[in-house]
Amino acid sequence: MTTYAPEQADREALASLDGKLAVIEDHVVAVHQRFQYGLYLYGEGALGKSYTVTRKLKDLEADFRTFNSRMTPKGLFMALRAAPDAIHLLEDMERLTSDRDAQGVLRSALWAQPDETRRVTWTTAEGTQHFEFRGGVIMLANRPLQNLAELKALASRVIVHKHEVTEAEMVAQVRRIASRGFARGGRTLAPEQCEEVADFLIAACRRANWPVDLRLFDTSCLSYLQWDAGHSKTHWRDLVSIRVRESVSGFKEEQAVQSREERLASDREIVRDILAQAEEPADQVRLWKDRTGKSQATFYNRKREIESREFDES
What we know:
Elements: H1 8-32, E1 38-42, H2 49-59, E2 64-68, H3 73-82, E3 87-91, H4 94-97, H5 100-109, E4 119-124, E5 127-132, E6 136-141, H6 149-155, E7 159-162, H7 167-178, E8 182-184, E9 187-189, H8 191-207, H9 214-228, H10 236-256, H11 260-277, H12 281-292, H13 296-308
Parallel strand pairs: 1-6, 1-7, 2-3, 3-6
Antiparallel strand pairs: 4-5, 8-9
């Protein structure tokens, strides 16, 4: 078994990343201890949001329920009513927050006037159902809350936090995870094998100008296991390279179906987000290039458009 000894650059990146993960853990503790009633945690996929939150909830021995994919407003009401003291973990349910009925349920569940209970009601022609919610809600998403008045009211009731990881932090994290080995379905990879996978994946992503992430690392280890077990005619390195190329190709195809106006609007939203995060121009440009791969000139073009207020919502 190897002993993981990160280089200075990786040590600095891991220290930075661990600080960011500690903030997420503190937010989870706040919901568990009822200092806060809700958390909306967002950021790009495969950066460790779900893993960090779930692990912390388990460490706290919290009573929590996990839901994902799809939930109707009435389904949300019923789920909260069925476990009014639990923490409800809602993963990848951005559509739920854009539904006005669901917004009403969440606002009622996550806030009350001082000395009052968080009473949630659901009224139809058949009558009114109601309950008192004493638990918490943690929502994990890839996108920020939309700029709608109803969602601003929701955002004021919960912690809203963006999890953003730099390339250096993610590379260091992948290497650290690789040093622990990998196990899945009764099969294992030794740390040395995982480190070989990590190094190859990182190099492949850099050649393709594509960010490495935890999901790619996970699937790369699975490709190694498949090849090592004799269930693949294709070498694991080729499988990993193909997956990276497909990720890049899929992203370009998704961009291609957007209209020019949609792409510009998306870029302006990214710039707004960056301006809220960083004050120094150099930091703003660096974040822009990390997220989009586009030029400094394009960043300043979109920035001028925002400052002109021509594209503000009426």
